[in-house]
Amino acid sequence: MSAPVGPFEDARPAPDCLAELVAPVAEAVRARHREDPSAAREIVYVETDPAVADTAAFVEHYGQGLLEVSANCVVVAAKRGGETTLAACLVPSAARADVNGVVRRHLGARKVSFAPMATAVELTGMEYGGITPLGLPAGWPLLVDAAVGDMPYVLVGSGRRRGKLIAPGALFARLPGAELIAGLAVPA
């Protein structure tokens, strides 16, 4: 199989390589496969070098054109009173989440910041630098920039620093807890 985007030589439908994924991501792919096998097979796993997992190093190594089809998933902590709510934001890699504006207002928080790395890793069961919207903890809001939902294909983390997932942008808008939000991303 060839990857729908990028120069990746090792591309396989994600349901065929569950062993390459962390447990919560593998379970999300399994669940999607049970619901709609053909849609699950649209999720493609590509093997990548973990040493270049961060966006800038990744596009330098695999090609600048990938920046336009990549999205980053970041975990944020929204605070109001004594309560903290965790959420994830999926934005194009060439932009950043408007954490102190759109995200804060949407979550009804007094303050929003990026969740500490240890918290994000522990609660998602994913590796830092590979967090993906597939397999996030139940009940977490997933704020998806509308531009991501409109992309034909989106390259995101796989839950590990090794490997990426490629899926239609519309798939991310249909994930549990997902909300499409115009203007979630602002220029980096």
TrEMBL record:
Domain YbaK/aminoacyl-tRNA synthetase-associated: where? 50-166
InterPro entries given in the database record: YbaK/aa-tRNA-synt-asso_dom_sf (IPR036754), YbaK/aa-tRNA-synth-assoc-dom (IPR007214)
Where are its TM segments located? none
One Pfam family here = tRNA_edit
What protein name applies here?
YbaK/aminoacyl-tRNA synthetase-associated domain-containing protein
